[in-house]
């Protein structure tokens, strides 16, 4: 499964949900290409091409909290289109049973700490070296003091 994620939602969590849906439906997810992007509003939407492996899932912005069950229902509906089913030939997305997934919201990506610039990295190295040399200097002063006493 190839996921192109253009949102702030966790790709790992989305993949877990999509694979669970595929396994529940008994379909082959290895060739599936899923694009995840934002949409206006607070509901999940999607579209897919007949007789293909491509699916586009549209999620609301993170301020709306996306429900896992709603996402899974829409995803399964779109898989139906990939299997060459028309709307007349399949259940409405809201009638699809999602008892194999725990309820909850789709997780967001963990925010990585911002990368340091070269100047910041160099400054950090210089501060460490300075502290190291000050330590050596203090030890040398103490040694010299003890030698002078003798």
The CATH class of the largest domain is Alpha Beta
**Main β-sheet, spatial strand arrangement:** 1-2-4-3
Structural class: alpha/beta
Query: How can the largest sheet be summarized?
Result: 4 strands, mixed
Spans of at least 5 consecutive residues with low confidence: none
Number of strands: 4
Q: First CA to last CA: what distance?
A: 77 Å
Features:
alpha/beta; 3 helices; 150 residues; single chain; Double Stranded RNA Binding Domain
Architecture overview:
It is a single chain. This protein has 150 residues and is α/β, with parallel strands linked by helices. It folds into 2 domains: 2-95, Double Stranded RNA Binding Domain, CATH 3.30.160; 113-150. The chain contains 3 helices and 4 strands; from the N terminus they run βαβββαα. A 4-stranded mixed beta sheet has the order 1-2-4-3, with helices on one face. Helix 1 links the parallel strand 1 (2-5) and strand 2.
């Amino acid at each position: 499964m190839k996921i192109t994620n253009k949102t702030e939602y966790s790709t790992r969590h989305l993949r877990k949900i999509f694979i669970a849906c595929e396994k529940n439906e008994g379909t082959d997810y290895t060739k599936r290409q899923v694009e995840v992007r934002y949409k206006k509003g607070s509901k999940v939407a999607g579209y897919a091409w007949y007789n293909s492996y491509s699916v586009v899932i549209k999620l609301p912005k993170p301020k709306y909290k996306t429900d896992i069950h709603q996402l899974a229902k829409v995803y399964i509906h779109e898989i139906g289109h990939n299997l060459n089913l028309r709307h007349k030939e399949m259940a409405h997305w809201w009638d699809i049973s999602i008892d194999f997934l725990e309820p909850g919201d789709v997780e967001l990506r963990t925010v990585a700490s911002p990368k340091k610039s070269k100047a910041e990295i160099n400054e950090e190295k210089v501060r460490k070296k300075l502290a190291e040399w000050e330590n050596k200097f203090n030890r040398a002063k103490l040694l010299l003091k003890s030698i002078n006493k003798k």
